[in-house]
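quick one: fe (ii) ion bound model?
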Amino acid sequence: MTSTILFRTTPRIFLGNGSIEQIGAEVRTLKGKRAFIVTDPGIVQSGILEKVTAALKSDKISFGVFDKVESDPRIEIVDQALAQLHQEKYDSVIGLGGGSSLDIAKLVSVMAKTSGKISDYFGIDLVPHPGLPLILVPTTAGTGSEVTPIAILSDEAEHLKKGVVSAYLFPKVALLDPLLTLGLPSAVTASTGMDALIHAIEAFTSINANDLTDHLAFKAIQLIYGNIRTAYARGEDVNARFNMLEGSLVAGLAFANAGVTAVHAFAYPLGGEFHVPHGLANAVMLPHVLRFNMLGNLSKFAAISKAFGLPAANLSQKHVAEMGILAIEDLMQDINIPLHLKDMNVSQEAIPRMAEGVMKVTRLLANNPRKLTLKDAEEIYRRAW
Ligand SMILES: [Fe+2]
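yep, here:
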């Protein structure tokens, strides 16, 4: 029996070289006259902000800029941005940058229209109203945040990452211009690209995967695995950058609907306690979680190896799935991503409490293809260490 599929996503998605030129027209379509750009200092320095503001100026859209988004942003950053928004009276929000900037822009958009506190909305479907019209412009091929209903913040006091999940966090428009990603440093290309690959792998193997998300996730694995080395080695390769941004987008479409699984659950304590960047935290856990998860759905894990282009003839599904994990470790070495937690200054003593942290991420563990106990979680961290 096949159950009915519900697929939700961002209503307008642009993907094209130079598509940033459309941004003014899109603000206008949303009846915006005064746009609030939420971004980070790196985007200002790299000259990307200027490209966006030039496009807005040519369409006579007035704008202001909040450029204080940090990586692993704290709740306070949303409050700071909101104070500026209310003071300067904007009618629309543009998120510009990596996942942190896009997530903060999502929260600023919804918080601008409610009197509640963010902490009231941690969890699923607790945001009461739609927010200000929102346009998201990713500058990394990573999070896929432009097509997901999720925003993640760091709770410093509790050493935890917390998520707001609500359909009101989908932007009205996602604008993806690969030319904005040409100057991304190779280390960022590697870690954000691994995050995108993991979104695709986890969506593909989630127990909530369906036919639609499978088509997207499989294609995303092909695009990202097939282009990440080139994008890392030769960042100005427009074709590789285009395929990476398309891959991260398509992975986002898939995981927004199928969910991610245990790799992300293992990454959260590493980010929360040791500030390991999201992409690296996921990548270092990936081979170890895959080796554990594989038995839960051998045919799916073998199909990942096929998406990588590995030979499968006359081999068992398990053998093919194992080849895929070796291929991931080989990729990680090529793009200079550590294979072990001890190389990331994570202390071994933290493993028991991090394992407890994993078990609290029930939202993601519910999607995992294999049941996982506290003992399993400790063992997986030990293997990764
Ligand atoms: Fe992620």
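Residues 219 and 247 are 7 Å apart (CA to CA).
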